[in-house]
Design goal:
By secondary structure, the chain is an alpha+beta fold. The chain is about 15% helix and about 25% strand. The N and C termini lie far apart (about 115 Å). About 0% of the residues are buried.
């Protein structure tokens, strides 16, 4: 069976040739009562040929080696957007999308999962444990050492440290020692030599220095 010739409108007086029959008329869908009737009538089917059998309302095409049944109707009648999805439809091309606004609210725990785009796998959508995402730091605890002049520290969460004079060793101050000061030029904490501080106090009035260092 040769390739079809397309469509032709015959008019009165036209001569119907064998080529016309094979090229136009035989390219249509042939209707048979049953599969057996089809096989008896078409003993040498050709690739691309169609036939319809009325007993089961089935449309068949010949793929070059066997008759293959086609579906005359789609099985899917509708797509409904479920949990955390939006979109859907009952006809045509249907699109659904992930929609966080369509999801219920929950208090997250470390054993819950999040959706993410895996950059190592062409941004494929995958799930990851919250505990895997937040457990990225190497610090397991913040502690203040003895005589460190610091107080505070934690073993989880955010740590806050403060300067502490009670966690400080005692020493006899000399001119070459440093003390912490607040630099009023930029309001940052810095160190200053005791000798620089004492040089600011008039020799006739040592009381402010004594009060400042006490």
């Amino acid at each position: 069976m040769a390739a079809g010739l397309g469509f032709k409108t015959f008019v009165s007086g036209d001569v119907l040739t064998a080529a016309d029959t094979n090229g136009y008329l035989m390219q249509g869908v042939l209707v048979f009562a049953t599969v057996s009737a089809r096989d008896s009538a078409i003993t040498s089917p050709q690739e691309g040929q169609f036939a319809f059998t009325k007993d089961a309302d089935s449309l068949w095409f010949y793929d070059g080696s066997a008759w293959v049944a086609t579906s005359l109707a789609a099985d899917i009648t509708g797509v409904t957007a479920g949990t955390a999805l939006s979109g859907g439809g009952t006809s045509g091309t249907v699109t659904v999308n992930v929609d966080v606004n369509a999801a219920s609210t929950v208090t997250a725990t470390n054993s819950d999962f999040l959706l993410l785009a895996d950059a190592s796998d062409s941004n494929a959508t995958k799930k990851a444990l919250i505990s895997d995402i937040i457990a990225t730091g190497d610090i397991t605890a913040v502690v203040t050492g003895s005589n460190s002049s610091l107080a505070g520290g934690v073993s989880s969460g955010a740590a806050t440290l403060t300067v502490s004079t009670t966690n400080t060793a005692t020493a006899t101050a000399v001119a070459g020692d440093y003390v912490l000061i607040e630099d009023v030029s930029d309001n940052t904490t810095k160190k200053a030599l005791i000798s620089d501080i004492t040089a600011l106090v008039p020799p006739s009035d040592p009381i402010p220095l004594i009060l400042a260092l006490s």
